[in-house]
Design a protein that fits this description.
Two copies of one chain form a homodimer. The first copy, chain A, is 70% helix and 8% strand. By secondary structure, the first copy, chain A, is mainly alpha-helical. The longest helix of chain A is centred in the N-terminal third of the chain and has 31 residues. Chain A is globular, with a radius of gyration of 20 Å. Chain A binds a DNA duplex through α4.
Amino acid sequence: MLVTEVNQIVDNQLFQKFVRFITAVHENSKEMTKGIQLESVTPVQYRILEYIYVSEPVTISQISECIDMSMPNMSRELKKLTEKQLCEKITDVHDRRKQYISLSEKGRGMMDQAFREIEVRFMGLMGSLTEEERAEVERALEVLQSKVFR
Amino acid sequence: MLVTEVNQIVDNQLFQKFVRFITAVHENSKEMTKGIQLESVTPVQYRILEYIYVSEPVTISQISECIDMSMPNMSRELKKLTEKQLCEKITDVHDRRKQYISLSEKGRGMMDQAFREIEVRFMGLMGSLTEEERAEVERALEVLQSKVFR
DNA sequence: CCGCTTACTTGTCATTTGATAACTAAAAGG
DNA sequence: CCTTTTAGTTATCAAATGACAAGTAAGCGG
């Protein structure tokens, strides 16, 4: 058996693990955020708010690109969110074409609460681990974050 | 400062890392599967096929539960997929109410191709790592899979 | 100043998805 | 048998999302 063939097999197993992992992460985070949806906010709108929450202030083009939705449609959704008083538009002082979006008091409060709920569920998971295990988890997060996901 | 307060801070940082990680995984897997959508298959339909692919044969109720879509709607989508010749229904011999779903030749071929494309992208990432780093990644996947995600 | 590009908005339409009510057919349990 | 439960289907309707055409208004490069 050639070395390249061995590598192929090793890599293939790694890929299988990777696929199973991605699936698990998706199921898990869906499970964790289940029932969070507050206030007549649609799934897409929730994702938008989540993105603004971690990246604000952002322009509409940026959100549009990251959420992978066309500008017209993103504009429409942001209008709805603004009408619901969950976010605000602020025109750039130096380039008045640009609109910076950030969460309103209400929007931030809502997202804070959502994240607190997620945190509670996360802590529930972590609670049953020993100190060393938690350190291991932290290390694993760092490894994957630096070497695989970005 | 009390020990519990220290723990609180540690845990909070861990949670921040966790959130960033989840976000990165989502962005990354969206990036990886971007452009995979073949053959007039909608996003939901792709998810259904993916689920069938890894779990076949499954009943319609099972799919319905895992994808979190009501039976009537799932029935409708599966009908469409069956019409597109991507999957097949087989009635259970012992309980003729049950319908087992599995991918057709065409459907399996399509999903094989999709996964191969994802694998290529994954290998592209792994290619720039050393052997030890890859082992580290593998270990990290295992740790998180066993301790956090299920 | 003028044409070009960028950032975004408005409006419209088709498709997808979600929700619900009413149905059939088969099993399961007295 | 006969009721109840389970598994799935069909039909209908509303809402969410996607795609696109045409618009405005501000910067930018000469």
